[in-house]
Amino acid sequence: MIQSLYRLFIELTNRKWSSELLKRFAQSSASRKVIPSFARVYNINLGEMEKGLHEYESLHDFFVRRLKPGARIVTDEGAEVVSPVDAVLEDIGPVESIHQITVKGKVYSIAEMLGSKEAAEAYAGGTYLVLYLSPSHYHRIHSPVTGRIIKQWTLGTRSYPVNSLGLKYGKSTLAKNYRTITEMEYGRGRLAVVKVGAMFVNSIETVHAGDWLQKGEEMAYFSFGSTVVLLFEKNTLKLPNTLRLPLPVRMGEKLGE
Questions:
Q1: In terms of domains, do 41 and 153 share one?
Q2: One domain, residues 41 and 151
Q3: Which of 22, 53, 87, 246 allows an S-S link to 131, with CB 3.0 to 4.6 Å?
Q4: From which domain of life does this come (predicted)?
């Protein structure tokens, strides 16, 4: 019953017109007035921002803010995989041989997430990580490894909530939402960085140039709270035994090796 009501509410509110209204307001100069309240409600760390609070031209400008140089330290260790975002690490688990993962008790198809069985085959038996970004987080996405981009593509048209309620009551949000997939080759294998759009604003902007990324280099940003799913090939990621989920992480922190 709860699941049905939740989905009905989302379907009624997640329409093109509502998304467009929110987008227009967030990008307008009028939205500057809500920036101080937004920063206070979400407890934004003002000391690490690139600019002062009143220098941002709109709520959108503030939302996609950059950080001061040195605000995040990325390790130079070649074997370490770092978090690509400031987020909450919501789930970790195996990619089953039938191209499925189970997140918050719900089964997702990796083949559907990536768009084909052929794309999913590389990650059968591998490992997935789900990183959720709330409105309070820094929303730029950085490379978790040093490597070469071998393919990048976009799927989906609409987006549904990717927070805890969305993962619990939504319908295949991680596999159906608007999403941009970046597949990379690095020293120990291949990984997919799946950037999943959030409700209302399907905006994932790619900012990197060329096909080579250094670990910690900026690759894209979200225009609203969202999720990153990392997919690793079999036997290419070793995780620490001390992880306790959900776990807050910062961009550049070690996730595994």
A1: no
A2: no
A3: 87
A4: Bacteria
The pLDDT tens digits for 119-136 are 999 999 999 999 988 888
pLDDT tens digits, residue range 190-223? 999 999 877 555 578 889 989 999 999 999 998 7
Can 97 be counted among the known catalytic residues? Answer: no
Told to judge if 109 belongs to the known catalytic residues of this protein, a careful annotator would answer: no
At residue 8, the pLDDT reads 32
Same domain, 180 and 127: yes
Would you call 86 a catalytic residue per the annotation? yes
In a domain, residue 71? The reply is no
| Residue 187 scores a pLDDT above 60 | yes
Determine, yes or no, domain membership for 76. no
Provide the sign of the torsion angle of the four alpha carbons 4, 92, 207, 188, taken in this order. negative
Q: Which of 86, 99, 139, 159 is catalytic?
A: 86
Catalytic site residue from 19, 58, 159, 226: 226
